[in-house]
Each structure stands twice: as structure tokens, then as C-alpha cells.
Design goal:
- It is a single chain.
- 66% of the residues lie in helices and 0% in strands.
- The protein has 216 residues and is an all-alpha fold.
- The relative contact order is 0.12.
- It binds adenosine-5'-diphosphate and nickel (II) ion.
- The site of nickel (II) ion has 6 residues, from helix 2.
Length: 216
């Protein structure tokens, strides 16, 4: 790995080490692997900016850091210390500002660069499939949500604060995960997203087969 990317890797690893909500450094490494695959077909994208943003994308998120503004300032100073060009620094920070699912609930008009679209697709792919199922259960356990309760309706989220409350692990599939494949920016992510979604649909079928029928 080139020196600047290695420093970015180390920075992200240190920041994500304390996360036990499914956004640890293992999530970051899968998102980077996903962008590397997407870069093979999206050859016009700047690979350095895309990979750097993939490593850093959760280091400034409110679910990982207590003070988002302080985290941005620290990251900005770090990127300048690496002597990246001003346009690289701006491109990376813009992606982090605009890419997250929860942010898209509050700000309807978000424009993402091509590099940002790849990181967003890569992050969304990691919410799907076998890993996505486990991350969702892991997150729900940490928040104290039940696995499933037929009495609790899914929420139709209109804002980030509604979304952050959550309801049950199984509801999260209907509230978010099954809707993600249709939101992918790139063709490759749409195809892979669809494949992972079918896997989750089979999982849900099996889940409801195993769950006792309620007596009414
Ligand atoms: P973003 O970073 O794009 O805003 P999140 O970090 O909120 O998205 O979601 C990432 C993953 O965390 C989800 O795909 C899911 O696995 C888990 N997660 C987030 N919110 C919930 C929830 N309410 N219930 C269960 N899992 C959740
Ligand atoms: Ni992420």
C-alpha cells in the first residue's frame, strides 16, 4: 500500500476500533473491498479519492463519534497533514458529508460525485446479504430491540431521528434493507444488491416459517 493510503488506513483503524454496533473496522475493510470491485467497471472514477473516502466514511458519523463537528475538524487537519491537494481534501470531505442513508432522510437534495456514488453503493452493499443480516441483529441487540414482535408495526421513516429510534430487528428489513437495492447508483451494485436481497428474502421466508403462528 502507498504511504498516504497506509496512513489513512491506520487513522480509520484507530477511530473504528471501539465500535460494537456493526460499524467496526471489519465493516470498513468490506466497504473498501466493495469499492475496489466497483472501480473495475467505473474506470473514470478517481481511485485514490474513492478508496480514501471508503476508509474514512464512518469516522465522522454521529453513531460512532460523540461530537461530529470535532471529528470533521480532526479529520480535515489529518488530511492536510498528509499533504493531499486541496481538491482531494474537498472531494473526500464532501463525500462523507453527503453519502449516508440517515442523512438522505433529512436532506432531500443531495448531489454525490461519481466517487461518492461508489462509496455509497459499497456501504449499502455491506448492509445486505449474510453480513447485512448479522449486522442488523448485532445492532438491534446493542440497542435493546426485540428480534421480532408482530404487534410492533414497521415505521415509515421521514427523518433521521425517527430512523435512529428503530423498532425491531425484523422490521428493519422492511423499513430499510429490502429497499436499498433499488437505490444503487451503479449497474454492478444494482446486480449484486439484487442478489443479496434475494438471499435476505429467503431468510425472511424461513424465519416466518419457524416463528410460531399467533393464537387469536
Ligand atoms: P448510514 O450509515 O448509511 O446512515 P446506518 O449506519 O444507520 O446507515 O445503518 C447501517 C447498518 O446498521 C444497517 O444496515 C443495519 O444493519 C444497522 N442498523 C441501523 N439502524 C438499525 C436499526 N434501527 N435496527 C437494526 N439495525 C440497524
Ligand atoms: Ni458504513
Amino acid at each position: 500500500m502507498e504511504n498516504k493510503m497506509r496512513a489513512i488506513y491506520d487513522y480509520a483503524k484507530e477511530k473504528m476500533a471501539q465500535d460494537f454496533s456493526g460499524h467496526g473496522f471489519d465493516h470498513i475493510l468490506r466497504v473498501v473491498a466493495n469499492v475496489e470491485r466497483l472501480l473495475e467497471t467505473e474506470t473514470q472514477a478517481d481511485a485514490f479519492v474513492t478508496k480514501a473516502a471508503a476508509y474514512l466514511h464512518d469516522t465522522v458519523d454521529d453513531k460512532v463519534v460523540a461530537d461530529e463537528q470535532a471529528a470533521y475538524l480532526e479529520l480535515h487537519n489529518f488530511l492536510i497533514s498528509l499533504q493531499l491537494s486541496e481538491s482531494q481534501v474537498t472531494a473526500i470531505l464532501d463525500i462523507l458529508h453527503n453519502m449516508s442513508f440517515s442523512k438522505s432522510l433529512d436532506k432531500k437534495e443531495i448531489r454525490l460525485s461519481l466517487e461518492g456514488q461508489l462509496v455509497q453503493d459499497a456501504d449499502r452493499l455491506d448492509a445486505l446479504g449474510a453480513v447485512g443480516i448479522l449486522r442488523t441483529a448485532y445492532f438491534g441487540g446493542k440497542k435493546g430491540h426485540p428480534i421480532y414482535d408482530p404487534e410492533i408495526q414497521s415505521i415509515d421513516y421521514q427523518s433521521k431521528s425517527d430512523y435512529r429510534k428503530g423498532s425491531t430487528v425484523i422490521n428493519h428489513f422492511y423499513e430499510k434493507l429490502l429497499l436499498l437495492a433499488a437505490t444503487m447508483n451503479t449497474e454492478a451494485a444494482k446486480i449484486e444488491g439484487q442478489r443479496r436481497t434475494e438471499f435476505m428474502e429467503n431468510f425472511l421466508k424461513e424465519f416466518f416459517y419457524e416463528w410460531p403462528k399467533s393464537e387469536k
